[in-house]
Amino acid sequence: MSKVINIGLxxxxxxxxxxxxxxxxxxxxxxxxxxxxxxxxxxxxLVRDTAKALQHPLVNESQLTTNWxxxxxxxxxxxxxxxxxxxxxxxxxxKAALEAKKPVITGNKALISEYGAELFALSKANQTPIYxxxxxxxxxxxxxxxxxxxxxxxxxxxxxxxxxTCNYILEQMSVxxxxxxxxxxxxxxxxxxxxxxxxxxxxxxxxxxxxIISCLTYGFYVDPKLIHVEGIxxxxxxxxxxxxxxxxxxxxxxxxxxxxxxxxxxxxQPSLIPKSSILSSVNxxxxxxxxxxxxxxxxFFYGQGAGKFPTASSVVTDLITCxxxxxxxxxxxxxxxxxxxxxxxxxxxxxxxxxxxNVIDQAGVMAKVTQSLANSDISLSGTHSxxxxxxxxxxxxxxxxxxxxxxxxxxxxxxxxxxxEVKEVTQAPVxxxxxxx
Length: 437
Ligand SMILES: NC(=O)c1ccc[n+]([C@@H]2O[C@H](COP(=O)([O-])OP(=O)(O)OC[C@H]3O[C@@H](n4cnc5c(N)ncnc54)[C@H](OP(=O)(O)O)[C@@H]3O)[C@@H](O)[C@H]2O)c1
Prior knowledge:
This protein is an alpha/beta fold. The protein contains 14 helices and 16 strands.
């Protein structure tokens, strides 16, 4: 006999409709695979615009509501799927569902990174789990792998490309040689970027995901104010061309790392990746994570980080996990497993760097620049000065410095000194990290 689970689905947009379609098509296959006959019925759907939702062939009028409380107060609803997004109404709904002891499945990274600590505590207090595989890297099953498959490994570092929109924009700027604005417009036309792409391009969408990954991996919440976040919105075509010439790709990288003293480093920045690295070949809207575990060594997770079916696939995976967890009768939710931990301040994080200077092209400038940096104890592994054959007598020239590994704060301070000491440096330097992968 099939066990029937009634579901309240909040949100019937890109991902919500994908979940309904997968469930309609694949229930019997799922039952056969997990060897447990069950039926997942979507009995209520929360939307704002019912007429729009009714255009979908799987939706009937009796399912629809515009009142979120209908999902909570209907005793026949067993579980709640939250796919409305945002942190206001989603927070109210998820909190109420946990208090009503209805397991929650969500794909909302902003909600988990902002309210995770509170929601996980509520989940524990009510012995009601919350699942969020779709919140990080869409269709890539990274949450399940970090929580289960890799749990015997101490994770040394995770290096990720976890914002497909930025990856697409940077690739288009590099390969199709179009401007940042053109590439962003193209991403919006193709549905890869939101109408308001701020959180994608300023690095915070990737950082929300990095904070969730870090909490799962190292067990405690990190205060976002402590970490170094930069987006791709200030990247210039020149830097993509120069990166290519020097043998690198330019990607928005999120790094989560445990240092030898146990402190945790989290950061998101546009970074140079050696062309020989597997991460360099991640193009378009794809996402990837390179996980370094002490027993497993490197493992690589690659796939679609967004989109209707890849993301809905992760939501349905959580539904299956929820079903299996409920069958044991034990609470199997996630809880931070360490009270707190040390976080490396942004200024103390270390890497090597690419620094681009615009200088007045005259004799002795290179010597002045390198001497000033040497006085600040900054050492260089290389320099590069591209020549413009169409204008050999140009007044200004570009100078690229490749800086040996040092603290970010130390480099910033040395560059401030450089700007005051060497008047031939005409603009604020462009600083990009070079990622060691
Ligand atoms: N799209 C992706 O590729 C992707 C990938 C990973 C994670 N996610 C996450 O998944 C969630 C859903 O994303 P989505 O792309 O499916 O969003 P979407 O296409 O914009 O759909 C949102 C749905 O929620 C409904 N909704 C929004 N606010 C509501 C409110 N206050 N009350 C009632 N209904 C409300 C909307 O109803 P109306 O249409 O009637 O307004 C719509 O049905 C988000 O948290 C997102 O971050 C999405």
